[in-house]
Amino acid sequence: MRLVVFFVGILVLTFVHHSLCIATNVRNPDATKSTVEIIRSRGYLCTVYHVTTDDGYILELHRIGLSSGRPVLLQHGLLSTDVDWITNPAGQSLGFRLADMGYDVYLSNSRGNTYSRRHVRLDPKEEAYWNFSYDEMGLYDVPANVEFILNLTRQPKLIYIGHSMGAAMFYIATASRPELNHKIDLMIGLAPVASMAHFNSPVKALAPHVDAIQFFLRATRTRAFLAKENWSRRFQKSVCQHTFKTIQLCQNVIFYITGTDRENFNSSVLSVIEGHFPGGTSVNTLAQFAQGYNTGKREGEQFRAYDHGPSENLRRYGVTQPPSYNLSLVTAPVYLFWGAGDLLASPKDIEWLSKQLGNLQSSVKVDWPEFNHLDFLWGVNSNRLLYDPLIAFPKLVHLWIFPEDS
């Protein structure tokens, strides 16, 4: 039992620092605002929608502006919320930049996070509500959001942009429901996650102990992992103080986990990030990433469903081992952007993913040697290094100028 407690302690501390628990002496007012309040405070119209999935989860969807242009769906990654896309100043945030170009921008929130914690019959206080991994986010959340947006706008297709787990969700959705591919103009994966075989962050040391960690978290009735209102968030608040030494410590730990990029580190929005991240998720979602690394280490690159154990796998999948997703069925046009300094989405795993996808258009290395996992959202130079090239892509520009084309 002491071993379990030891590794859970490491896990909590790791995510405490990974959650950017850094405060600055001057606290940004956006730190205490909701996504909707931030959007409106920047002078944009924001509309809130609630989307119900086939399995009953109620997701909150935020729309920037009221454009009749091509719809774009932005999907955040692990433990995040849609505030990721609007944290930087308006001219440096992808959500606002796309809105300024005339796109009809939608920010989605995965089940279980701060904004999407409702269900038609399940109570989030009950364990049954949290019985999901990112399999369900792909199988149900992505199709529900896509269908809702297309029905609302009466458009035939949309553009999907996903960061990290947000990309994995898309691959699960389109591999499991191939008809969904025909409703996607193009997909852009930023630091996309699929295979975890070459995951190179030091937190991989925790992966072999995933079963023991899950047991401990369930024994302590931790259902919403790293949600704002539970004990892990309160611990974070107690650790993260407004001191120069804490700032330095947290920065060093972040670089240790995600990749070192001091020059591109945006300290001006740290209090905003700390105010919103983490948004919480299920224990199973975290465990699925660990399972991916463990499987990849044993058997090589794979992208598999959640492992429930032999008997439950047999009941759910018809086999004792979780099946792999057939990524060749992802036939929507896909563009990948990745960073050489990313320890979480390894360049080797990106290379493997590129060979599996059914319609890869381009795999683009960001032109910065230390560009890491978080730079895709909050880097000082992300406008020049990432968003400018992304927006300049010929097909994206064509769809903006000629939105009637599909």
Automatic annotation (TrEMBL):
Residues 1-21 form the signal peptide. Pfam families: Abhydrolase_1. Residues 71-377 form the AB hydrolase-1 domain. InterPro entries: AB_hydrolase_1 (IPR000073), AB_hydrolase_fold (IPR029058), Lipase_euk (IPR025483). GO terms for molecular function: hydrolase activity, acting on ester bonds. The keyword S-adenosyl-L-methionine does not apply. Transmembrane segments: none annotated. GO terms for biological process: lipid catabolic process. Keywords: Glycoprotein, Hydrolase, Lipid degradation, Lipid metabolism, Signal. This is Lipase. It comes from Daphnia sinensis.
